[in-house]
Description:
Blueprint: E1 4-8, H1 9-12, H2 32-44, H3 53-57, E2 63-65, E3 71-73, H4 83-87, H5 119-123, E4 129-132, E5 142-146, E6 149-152
Parallel strand pairs: 1-6
Antiparallel strand pairs: 1-4, 2-3, 5-6
Amino acid sequence: MAKTLYIDLEKCRDCKSCHAECSYFYHPFNDGITYLREVAEFTLTCRQCEAAPCIEVCPTDALERQDDGIIRRWNIRCVACNSCSYACPFGTILPELIGYAVSRCDFCHARLNHKDAPVCVDKCTLGAISYGEYEVNEEKNIYRISDHLLVHAISWNKKVLF
């Protein structure tokens, strides 16, 4: 089993200011983890509204619904006006995750021999980020976001009541 980055969003949400640094020198604001949190929140906690007000209100068309139904933000189009955050009827688009300049996390693939943990793991003061061998477990709310990322979060699932 390959090692993956694991983020516990339930712990992350308790942090008022992320101190998890990124070792990639092209991340001037050390915010690779912010990007991962954004992707995880859109995937797991966003209600994926059929008539999504966040998409409708975005002045730059930075939000789009992908083929799999997940809403995604295109960073290059986003001006960080936070209109989407204000329009979200459920409050799941967190303004602190919608930055104007966000660096993508590359999971430290080019810099690590995959035996050492990425720098963000050691710098996270709440222990919400770890690196190891983890498995998807929906009963324990652990979901795969990508090949290199697993996330613990209380997922929201749309249920049809009729």
